[in-house]
């Protein structure tokens, strides 16, 4: 891979620079290439505490995602193979509360009247409602992790 150093154009809008870098990484599949380059090297394991899938990211998530990328990236650069697999925290209570509010129901009796299977399906559907927003945030931060195989 030819990595020519180029001067930063201070007049280039930040958004355009961001998109240019992200496109470079995407077009060359740099994340996966960095993983493949370290195959067979000593393993370094990092267990991510994944975000809750049924809510929008907020500024606090930015900081935690930066740190969740920093250590695995550093260890990769130090010669370790680091599997970087994302996950989703889909614990039940926040999901159930969201669906109860959505359908104006509360508690076991009303859930049974609503239909348990219908309620469970609504919970499942809600879990990944925010997935695209999380993917976009993750990519824009340059957080390299496999979101396609959680």
Sum this structure up briefly:
By secondary structure, this protein is mainly alpha-helical.
Write up what this structure looks like:
Helices cover 55% and strands 0% of the residues. It is an all-alpha fold and 150 residues long. The chain has one domain. The longest helix is centred in the middle third of the chain and has 19 residues, at 59-77. The chain is elongated, with a radius of gyration of 20 Å. The model has no long low-confidence stretch (mean pLDDT 89).
Q: How much of the sequence is in beta strands?
A: under 5%
Task: Tell me the Rg in angstroms.
Answer: 20 Å
The shape, in one word, is: elongated
Number of strands: 0
Q: Helical amount among residues, as a percent range?
A: 55-70%
What's the N-to-C terminus distance?
A: 29 Å
Order of helices and strands: HHHHHHH
- What integer is the average pLDDT? 89
**Number of discrete helical segments:** 7
Low-confidence stretches: none
Q: What is the structural class?
A: mainly alpha
Number of domains: 1
**Biggest β-sheet: count, sense, barrel?**
none
Give short descriptive properties of this protein:
55% helix, mainly alpha, 150 residues
SSE blueprint:
Elements: H1 14-28, H2 30-37, H3 59-77, H4 92-102, H5 107-114, H6 116-127, H7 131-140
Helix pairs in contact: 4-6
């Amino acid at each position: 891979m030819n990595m020519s150093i180029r001067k930063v154009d201070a007049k280039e809008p930040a958004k355009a620079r961001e998109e240019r870098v992200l496109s470079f990484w995407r077009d060359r599949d740099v994340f996966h290439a960095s993983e493949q380059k370290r195959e067979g090297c000593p393993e370094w394991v990092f267990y991510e505490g994944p975000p809750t899938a049924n809510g929008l990211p907020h500024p606090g998530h930015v900081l935690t995602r930066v740190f969740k990328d920093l250590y695995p990236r550093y260890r990769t650069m130090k010669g370790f193979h680091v599997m970087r697999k994302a996950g989703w925290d889909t614990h039940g209570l926040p999901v159930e509360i969201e669906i109860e509010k959505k359908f104006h129901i509360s508690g076991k009796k009303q859930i049974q009247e609503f239909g348990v299977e219908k309620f469970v399906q609504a919970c499942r559907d809600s879990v990944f409602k925010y997935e695209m927003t999380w993917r976009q945030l993750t990519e824009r931060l340059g957080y390299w992790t496999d979101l396609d195989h959680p």
